[in-house]
């Protein structure tokens, strides 16, 4: 076996290990959101609280998790992946211990909210890890695994909790979850490596407060609409909407937004996120009303109700990766609307079976309903994220992860609200409790069936959007092939600029070059104006002059690094402007692509900063490699229109969504 092949195998094994850790994190995060739900009754008895108070163990967890999801994007690019992951899981471990030892409801809620912080951080971190290490041709499989774990988490929580509560007190749930979290923490500490492009993103506190008020207000309003004061719920929802509107406006105005809104420019992304939310809403809704119905109406124990859900849950885990492979090969044009259709049909059949005496019939009809979510959640999520470019993907992950929490809160609140409202209506109309509860369950089943029908409509719209995206891409390439001068460098440049500040030293610059995989970066004044440009070649020339025995940077790779290590240590006290080129060749934002090509060619440069105006701020970088990609795509477009796969679908290399 060649060393290159062995290295490739090692890289593949490392990627598999990291995806496994990310999948375990997704399982933990969603497991945490529902595993305490079946223990609410004994908690009320032990701690002396009523149902309106104890429900905050579920609602509060979802709300706090939703608030911390946007923060994860800042932390992901600020801290190395391994310590960040370990820190996020540590919140789960500490929260579990606090909850298990809680002497009062307030302490238990505090522990639960600590767990929620870890939940809000873990889901996007795990998805970002998967996007970073999964081969592009196997992205559907990897995201299918993530979706399976996301679906398995809240579903399996009911089964495991029901089994444990039949033999142990509710505090055991906290200890068991803490132990599982500790295992994942140790696995992450061993298997993870840094996969993020690190920088110094700033957490905008006002944006954090606005999104916190917005999400808490909106989700609180929805969750209390059926069971609390209608005016209070409406006021909370209005305040939430206004805060979210202010959040959106602020993100467009500040230099370092908490959440980059660029993904929302993509119609396929918006449709993909919406379909993902509808699939998750189905899972959360059915997983809360089915146990309630089976225990209150069918006389099942918590364990019995959990076991009725188990077959479909376990089969979903198997089908998730299979659905991912099918999506990689054939897209989701048929799969996603078929999944929503099956969900709608069997949700109605489960509702009809609710009045039947046979619990087995009820359980059998639920299996295809929950299995169909595998055809929806993972493929829709992959479709959404595959519509984004590399720079937008982390922001898209944040949006998708936030949508998980919102879908969970919506599914739980709406299903329980409809169930209770219809049950109350039945009692008021003279029905006995059994018939009224059956009516309430059927109302919840109709609700999820209707949301699934909406999913079918969105899937058809996504098909049209994907086709339009391909057509627009082909037309854009044709236009570029006909006239390169019709476009400016703004259309070609990379807008997320990796820049140095005049206050940094040269060693920090080298660390950034290594972390981001770049060979140079502009140096900016505090006001954002261009001060110079530093490349790794500038550093090597300095080392060659000052430390002639240490000119070979590759000596680190073969173990002969003593002399070079001493030389690099000198760079700590060397400001970047001592080595940077102060007279930088630049391109104006309004320059044509042909002008940029001429500058790169005539000056023999790899990349050129793009300025807005003569002395304006740096707004991007145009590189030789970007020009090369444009030239190749223009040639292919003019010769064939667009690259086609053997089955007639667009190549995955084009980054066009694969719904059709």
Automatic annotation (TrEMBL):
It is a multi-pass membrane protein. GO terms for molecular function: transmembrane transporter activity. It is found in: Cell membrane. It holds the Pfam family MFS_1. PROSITE patterns: CBS, MFS. Its main location: membrane. One of its GO terms (cellular component) is plasma membrane. This is DHA2 family lincomycin resistance protein-like MFS transporter. It comes from Georgenia soli.
